[in-house]
Recover the amino acids of this structure.
């Protein structure tokens, strides 16, 4: 299946490829009139609502074009700090921009609670069928940013399933074995393989 991923984040595309390509699918960014489309995101309603909003807008955009009927993938994700329920969540990229990773570490230090998780919701739609999946990756927030691999919060995220290093320090290969994105994309690929399809 040729999957068009409606995202402006190249890292997400690379991570989705790692899961889908070994299964014989291709993944590329959705481009309309030469541009990655921008979507209205109801961030106050959470990542699942944002993913739902992205898929309906993406499907509306390709209706009537030569892309109609293509497999469209969307994903919304964020980091959730145990100390602050549902925060930053769907606002993760805005909060990262506004207070930075140091600002996050400061708040975590003040709270004394270092537990956290990445969550992702992905939706795939093809030929009037829709599949939805969720992925979670538990971890703790480090005392300082370490490493430059990955993106976003990776330099301060120490996955429980790792060896004590941050995702920023671990290779993309290791991240892609245990991350929320790996889990959410694997969930979708399992649904695609299931006999009910
Ligand atoms: P699209 O909406 O265009 O797909 P985006 O980067 O804006 O791309 P989101 O709205 O889903 O993506 O926001 C995800 C944010 O959550 C991202 O910018 C990071 O701040 C954080 N995040 C999610 N997954 C992450 C990961 O694997 N590593 C590091 N940070 C991540």
């Amino acid at each position: 299946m040729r999957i068009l991923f409606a995202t402006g984040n190249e890292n997400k595309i690379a991570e989705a490829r790692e899961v889908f390509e070994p299964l014989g699918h291709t993944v590329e960014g959705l481009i309309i009139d030469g541009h990655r489309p921008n979507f209205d995101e109801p961030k106050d309603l959470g990542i699942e609502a944002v993913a739902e909003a992205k898929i309906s807008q993406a499907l509306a955009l390709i209706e009537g074009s030569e892309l109609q009927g293509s497999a469209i993938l969307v994903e919304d994700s964020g980091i959730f700090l145990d100390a602050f329920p549902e925060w930053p969540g769907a606002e993760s990229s805005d909060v990262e921009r506004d207070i930075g990773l140091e600002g996050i570490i400061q708040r975590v230090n003040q709270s004394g609670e270092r537990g956290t998780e990445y969550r992702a919701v992905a939706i795939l739609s093809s030929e009037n069928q829709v599949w939805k999946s969720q992925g979670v990756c538990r971890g703790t927030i480090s005392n300082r940013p370490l490493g430059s691999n990955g993106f976003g919060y990776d330099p301060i995220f120490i996955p429980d399933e790792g060896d004590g290093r941050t995702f920023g320090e671990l290779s993309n290969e290791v991240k892609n074995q245990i991350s929320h994105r790996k889990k959410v994309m694997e969930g979708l690929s399992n649904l695609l393989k299931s006999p009910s399809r």
Notes: The radius of gyration is 17 Å. The chain has five helices and six strands. Residues 92-111 form the longest helix (20 residues).
